[in-house]
């Protein structure tokens, strides 16, 4: 089936969707994005993603091409026409296509932002076999820019990190700066010691994960302790459990870090429980 996608006000077959070669995201990665998951044909935590999108736009002095209600309608329409039961909606907004290449931002009065949305059909996203096996993590140096709290489309380094991990026989990489883990290539990172969930505090060093916010709330409700602080790879290798969170992975257990096996090498009890709680609770509030 040909996907229907959304480009600048039009719903089109994916084969007919076009963006200018002068688009600022194509030439300069001058764009922001969001990924929202879909379960049971409904959007998970849309409000959280919309709020973060507005913040990303405002931090970059970029104009929103439509309001958040319209954005919700576009998400829902794409889920409907593409018949998505489980999957993702990808949204990208760029500073537009000024018709030439220039480092200076184009005048927002004359250059409209570009907006693109498409769906990704992923049956079995919730019942992911990887969650029963757990991930193997490789640590790499964090060489990204300093504003990781803005969700920009500059994803070359995370993409290279994922390839490094794959080449080393791992599933993903955790990035390390000044001796401490920042986050995963496309997810937030956590370790578990006893009843305590430890994760780096929010700052411009990491993306403020929408799944992170929900999971920490659910963990506190389940009487787990939360400690927002830095941790090293050495500390993570000694932890009882570890996991990652993101809109596409939800809560995904980690079983190995740089060759060190955590616990008995199977997903930890708390990570597994948090995945169950997250899926159950976020389904209840999906729209
Ligand atoms: N990535 N950290 C980074 C660097 C990310 O790219 C992501 C999300 C997260 C988790 O954020 P959230 O819980 O809001 O999804 C943390 C998305 C899923 C992606 O790029 O596909």
Give the topology.
Elements: E1 4-7, E2 10-13, H1 24-28, E3 31-39, E4 42-43, H2 46-59, H3 68-81, E5 87-94, E6 114-121, H4 130-133, E7 135-141, H5 156-167, E8 172-177, E9 180-184, E10 188-193, E11 196-199, H6 210-221, E12 225-228, H7 233-237, E13 241-246, E14 250-257, E15 260-261, H8 269-284
Parallel strand pairs: 7-8, 7-14, 11-12
Antiparallel strand pairs: 1-2, 1-6, 3-4, 3-5, 5-6, 8-9, 10-11, 10-13, 13-14, 14-15
The structure holds N-(5'-phosphopyridoxyl)-D-alanine.
N-(5'-phosphopyridoxyl)-D-alanine (PDD) is lined by residues 35, 183, 186-188, 207, 209-212, 245-248.
Describe the fold and architecture:
With 287 residues, the protein is an alpha+beta fold. The chain folds into two domains: 4-121, Aminotransferase class 4, branched-chain amino acid transferase, N-terminal domain (D-amino Acid Aminotransferase, Chain A, domain 1, 2-Layer Sandwich), CATH 3.30.470.10; 130-285, D-amino Acid Aminotransferase, Chain A, domain 2 (Alpha-Beta Barrel), CATH 3.20.10.10. Helices cover 29% and strands 29% of the residues. It contains eight helices and 15 strands. The protein has helices at 24-28, 46-59, 68-81, 130-133, 156-167, 210-221, 233-237, 269-284, and strands at residues 4-7, 10-13, 31-39, 42-43, 87-94, 114-121, 135-141, 172-177, 180-184, 188-193, 196-199, 225-228, 241-246, 250-257, 260-261. The strands form two sheets. Strands 7, 8, 9, 10, 11, 12, 13, 14 and 15 form a nine-stranded mixed beta sheet that branches. A six-stranded antiparallel beta sheet has the order 2-1-6-5-3-4. Helix 6 packs across helix 8. The structure holds N-(5'-phosphopyridoxyl)-D-alanine (PDD). The site of N-(5'-phosphopyridoxyl)-D-alanine has 14 residues, from helix 6 and strand 13. N-(5'-phosphopyridoxyl)-D-alanine binds at residues 35, 183, 186-188, 207, 209-212, 245-248.
């Amino acid at each position: 089936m040909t996907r229907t996608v959304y480009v600048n006000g039009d719903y089109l077959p994916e084969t007919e969707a076009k963006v200018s070669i002068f688009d600022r995201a194509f030439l300069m990665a001058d764009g922001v994005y969001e990924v929202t998951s879909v379960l049971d044909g409904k959007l998970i935590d849309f409000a959280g993603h919309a709020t973060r999108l507005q913040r990303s736009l405002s931090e970059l002095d970029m104009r929103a091409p439509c309001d958040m209600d319209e954005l919700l309608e576009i998400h829902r329409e794409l889920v409907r026409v593409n018949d998505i039961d489980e999957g993702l909606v990808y949204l990208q907004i760029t500073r537009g296509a000024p018709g030439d290449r220039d480092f200076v931002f184009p005048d927002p009065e004359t250059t409209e932002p570009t907006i693109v949305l498409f769906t990704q059909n992923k049956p079995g996203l919730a019942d992911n076999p990887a969650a029963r096996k757990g991930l193997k993590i490789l640590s790499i140096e964090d060489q990204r820019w300093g504003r990781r709290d803005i969700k920009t489309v500059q994803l070359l380094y995370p993409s290279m990190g994922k390839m490094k991990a794959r080449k080393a026989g791992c599933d993903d990489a955790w990035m390390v700066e000044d001796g401490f883990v920042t986050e995963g290539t496309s997810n937030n990172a956590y370790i578990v010691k006893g009843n305590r969930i430890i994760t780096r505090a929010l700052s411009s060093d990491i993306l403020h994960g929408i799944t992170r916010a929900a999971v920490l709330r659910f963990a506190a409700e389940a009487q787990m302790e939360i400690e927002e602080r830095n941790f090293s790879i050495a500390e993570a290798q000694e932890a009882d459990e570890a996991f990652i969170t993101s809109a596409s992975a939800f809560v995904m257990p980690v079983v190995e870090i740089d060759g060190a096996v955590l616990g008995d090498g199977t997903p930890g009890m708390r990570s597994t429980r948090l995945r169950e709680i997250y899926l159950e609770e976020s389904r209840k509030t999906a729209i």
